[in-house]
Protein 1
Amino acid sequence: MPTRVIKVKGMSCPHCERAIEGVLLDVPGVSGAKASHQDGTVQLEAEESVTGDMIREAVAEVGYEVVSP
């Protein structure tokens, strides 16, 4: 499964990381998510069918913004 790195704006603590990881793991086709508030990134393991819009919408649900899919 391909790994993507996305940049997320607004993470400031481990709680932020867990919130983003949890919501991304609920997206169909996502098998792994590892967020880093220090880097402002998320390493995402997802099928090719998972679109940038799906990722942006999921992250927005918990109050953060994807700045590059």
Note: The chain has one domain: 3-68.
Protein 2
Amino acid sequence: MMRVLVTSSRNTFALDIIRKLGSLGHTVVASDTFPGATGSHSKYLAGHAVTASPRYDTDRFIADVNRIVAEYDIDLIIPTFEEVFYLSARVADLPEGVTLFGGSFSTLARLHDKASFQRLVKRAGVPIPETIVATDHDSLVAATEKYPRYFARAAFSRGGVGLLTNTGPLAGKMSVDDCHPTEEQPWLVQPFVDGPMVCTYSTIVDGRVTSHCTYRAPEQWAHSTGITFLAVDSTDTLDYTQRIVDALDTGFTGQLSFDFVDNDGELYSIECNPRPTNGVILLEAEQLEQALTGRNDEAFVVEPGVERQISLAVLADAFAEPLKHLPTSLHDLLHVRDVGSGWHDSFAMMWSPATLVHGAKLSHGQRKELLGALGDDIVWNGEPIAGMSAADAAALEDVHEQRI
């Protein structure tokens, strides 16, 4: 049996991982930077702890993680958000005998930086839209003027937050003057690709995909983060994921999530989140368990048609835009299985408002969307990390030089 620490337990998919591993008899401990994190109150936990912010107090965060590892004799750390960058940059400072399921810092940085990621994907032979990297205001304006319909975002961004476009439901939500690209923090500009977003989640062990899910989000909160998840065919995305992993040439072990746009059956790669996303919710508990260890000879692939929803979010979205979403939301509430169904772990979800309050506190006095604020203390935006090795610092510089 494994003894697992799941970090950033505020995330719905972190709670899902906790439930699945805990229900199979593994010892699971949760941590986050505040005590009200949803996943920290699951009945499937052996314990939970509060850590310092990895972003704002990295040294103390690492010390806190070491304390938890020692107290609970942890042998596997599963990050669920961008704390993975801080843990991987400081992996040499983690206790001997504990495994980080997250990959090397240099590899994660190549995947997370959207500019260097585009170059990697192109080398892997995976379709991508034409891409311009803007490093100042003038080049950003010029790039947006090149395409009649465009889509732009920062090289370090996530969760559908901070998107610049003149097309679709997010058109005009952000202006060019709100964006501030630099050499260190560039923006990517692409022609707007028509079609629905297709997302994936994969576990990889020693360079081999061990589980894979491809899904769409029929219902979204504020046109950004998904609140219902429907598995679709994985034939192309599984092939593309393995190609990208092979192009890394590192024997990667960890979790990867990709976003594609389905343009009349042609999938275009958009970005990578080198961490879990809601796709993990669609895996069965035994599949996730075996995939993390690599014991399965062939990848577990979620069958098309499997569907889950975050019922509370669906209900909230329905009343936020009742004329648009209420009919679909009512159907989903009646017919789609909730992510918490069958777990008999409702006390954990009662703490969901605490997570929103945490995000509101982080955004207090700042012009920041709630979705962005929810992860503000655990994100990584390409800066050097306190205590990182000289080799990783050099690798970060190399990533900047690999931008297209």
Note: The longest strand covers residues 254-263.
Protein 3
Amino acid sequence: MTEPLGIYRLQDRRTRLEVPAELWGSLQDRHVQDFTARWKPIFDARLAELRRQGDVTAAIAGEHNVQDAHWKWAQKVKERSESLSWASFAVEAEGVTQGLMFARLDGFAREPSQRNKPLVDIDLLATAPWNRSRLVDEPQFKGIGQLLLGTAISLSVAEEFAGRIGLHALPQAASWYRDVCGMTDLGVDHTGMHYFEMTEQQARAFIR
């Protein structure tokens, strides 16, 4: 893909100004390279700092917003790039990858009002470390998670799934999906994580 899907706006928290962001409809080599060369060193530095203070439990990693630092984006791209069951997206601003997402196209809903209906299942969604509170003192861009979540809804609509999406939330993100995005919390499942879904009505409310 040589052209972005669209140009959107992010807010730079430091300047309060809006900054243009490109949404890309498949992860490119440069996105993986940004993760490896720009994201991972920040994650690794914080984890090393935490290890010097003691054991790094999942709860501690979550408190410092690095619980997803182990996600292997390069490996996932390699494994999934040829599969029609997967879709991937990236957000770029100021020439740097600001957000990444993988989503499955073969999920089925669990929420009672939409049970067994097809949905888009978000597998991985992450923002760059410099955009994360509790990881850096002054997070830079705001709105990346909302943009990627809205993209998953749009993908669901395009696939004729009526905007339905689902995902497992890391503990530090659960309240955001529930309270900010308005998704339904279906509780902890066999994965040990909270599972969330967005109904057709919730999707319409989110993108309104």
Note: DSSP finds six helices and nine strands in the chain.
Protein 4
Amino acid sequence: MKYIEKLHYITHDIPHLSHIEQAQQACEAGAKWIQYRSLSKSDEELLQDINAIAEICDDWGTTLIVTDHVHLNGKADIQGFHIEDMDADFIKLRKLVGHDITLGGSANTVDNLIRLVKEGADYAGYGPFAETETKPNNYAHLGIEGYQHVVKELKAQAIGIPVLAVGGIKTYDVEALMQTGIYGIAVSGAINFADDFIEAYQDFYTLVKEST
């Protein structure tokens, strides 16, 4: 079973900080898992970012995951991919990237999660917890009850996969979320738009650690 960090930090296309600057600050704050999420760049631009971020992550011992862009596997020091397409064929993806690469997927129903498990995903981002500007969508907000339900369902079916809450999570949500029994959380906007990036990351990290 692959190591999955309990706090995933996700970079984002924002005007005031480049992805490289986001990654640098996250690593300085102690991040051990960075998901590079850029859906607006050419392959050349992506690789420029990824190579620079990979060097930063290597210096800090941080895992680098890339959102989608599986075709870049082998072209940079990428430890894994997070696939946002909930209809993606993970059996095919696993054959494509091999068994050493970490593969995570997005889900918003128990059925989605079960399929990810059956097809060999290493972890799942489950959401949205609440309103989020980072990844706008029309899915119903799960709230605390949604995570209580999914943990109960997975236990009842003896299905094990690290499930991370994602989508509009604030520091004051962390304790209640972790108490549902989920594995961890993924955060982007609440850190990227905080007055103090590093302090915000460390606040989330402390809350996740204390709730584990």
Note: The chain has a mean pLDDT of 95.
